[in-house]
Amino acid sequence: MIEKEILNNKNVALVVGSTGMAGSNLANKLIENGWEVYGLSRSSKNNNVAIKPITADLLNPSQLANALKDILPTHVFFTTWMRNDTEDENIRINSALVRNLLNVLSPKKSVKHVALVTGLKHYLGPFESYAKEGVLPETPLREEQPRLDLKNFYYAQEDEVYAAAKRDGFTWSVHRPHTLIGYAVGNLMNLGTTLAVYASICKEEKLPFIWPGSEAQWNGLSDVTDAKILAEQLIWAAETPSAKNQAYNIANGDIFRWKWLWQKIADFFDLEVDGFDGSIRPLEQRLAQKKEIWQKMAVQYNLIEADLNRISSAWHTDLDLGRPIEVMTDMSNSRKLGFVEYTNTKDSFFELFTQLQKDKLIP
After folding, report:
1. Any catalytic annotation for residue 206?
2. Below-50 pLDDT ranges, the chain
3. Does the active-site annotation cover 10?
């Protein structure tokens, strides 16, 4: 039986990054569970009208304080970040995002729990050294593995949470998903939608579905994280006393080989597969030549987004699929504490593709 904290009648969630993939799915799930939800982002656009939008720049403390002046959150879920040109800048900016928010909330004394979403770069290294020889960890990845001896903005964000928790007395949890699969337009790291867009272009041009990544990823074992199961774990950690003050990996619960899943995705779009051929063939280079084709497709099929750069993030897809090792995560820490949710990975992709078609984001 899953241990659950008896919460106060009024649980007020502040979801930071509520328009992103992780944040929007979390906000929806919190609302389903009866929480009062405020969504903080640089844009006031939220698909769920029950989310109370807050528009503020996390790098502007005075603006942030003004936006939050009448809000007393009991739980903060931090799901956003900003990409910069160097890891030094990533650290400076992304630590400030967390620090500024928690400093603004500190005098209110309302926060009971802060959850931070990071990812597997905690184990695989930052963008500048991502999954490179010399820093490759042993897999499956486990939460107790030490930090790499590298600069990493995930570590800086964690340290801001730890320092604020010590100062203000709230509990915390850190959540490390593998590649996130879910619905969000304009997300910086959106492999599922990127593959859907690429597959749609292949179908339009009657081209094979070319594998862009490494042999290790093609043949090795992997897992991914549905944004909905991440939301489930975030809420579970917030409500379960024994789950507090720990870090957790989070993945769907099944494993697969990309050569199997690539064929399944190709079948969904009725494509022929061109698998690993001995070399890495980056998707970013291929999609860079397809902007005009996508614009024509947007007109022909009445799609709502004609900007290929806004709907896809090939650079991140190449990072994930080009890794020189197989990558999967161990979830023993949360499993032994009672988190037993599971999602089928093929269903994660197919449900996303169906939703993208329904909403006229792909043909």
Report:
1. no
2. 1-2, 6
3. no
Residues 197 and 311: their CA atoms lie apart, in Å, by 8
Q: Are 59 and 97 in contact (CB under 8 A)?
A: yes
* Strand bridging mode 209-210 / 273-274: parallel
Query: Which DSSP string do the residues of 253-314 spell out, in sequence order?
Result: S--EEHHHHHHHHHHHHT--EE---SS---HHHHHTT-HHHHHHHHHHTT-S---HHHH--H
Question: Could you say which of 121, 183, 228, 290 is catalytic?
Answer: 121
pTM over 0.70: yes
Options 38, 154, 183, 198, the catalytic residue: 154
Q: In angstroms, what is the C-alpha Rg of the chain?
A: 20
Q: What is the DSSP string of 186-231?
A: T-SS-HHHHHHHHHHHHHHHT--EE--S-HHHHHSEE--EEHHHHH
DSSP category for residue 50: T
Distance of alpha carbon 345 from alpha carbon 331, whole angstroms:
16
Q: Could you tell me the domains of the chain?
A: 10-177 (3.40.50.720), 186-222+255-326+345-359 (no CATH)
297, two tokens: 């497709």
* C-alpha to C-alpha distances, 129 to 65, 91, 125, 176, 315, nearest whole angstrom: 36, 14, 6, 18, 15
In tens, the pLDDT along 63-81 reads 999 999 999 999 999 999 9
3-class SS of residue 361? coil
The per-residue pLDDT for range 173-210, each reduced to its tens digit, is 999 999 999 987 655 568 999 999 999 999 999 999 99
Residue-wise pLDDT for 262-285, tens only, equals 999 999 999 999 999 999 999 999
Q: Are 238 and 113 in contact (CB under 8 A)?
A: yes
What's the DSSP call for residue 138? P
Residue for token pair 């099929």: 301
Residue 42 has what pLDDT?
80
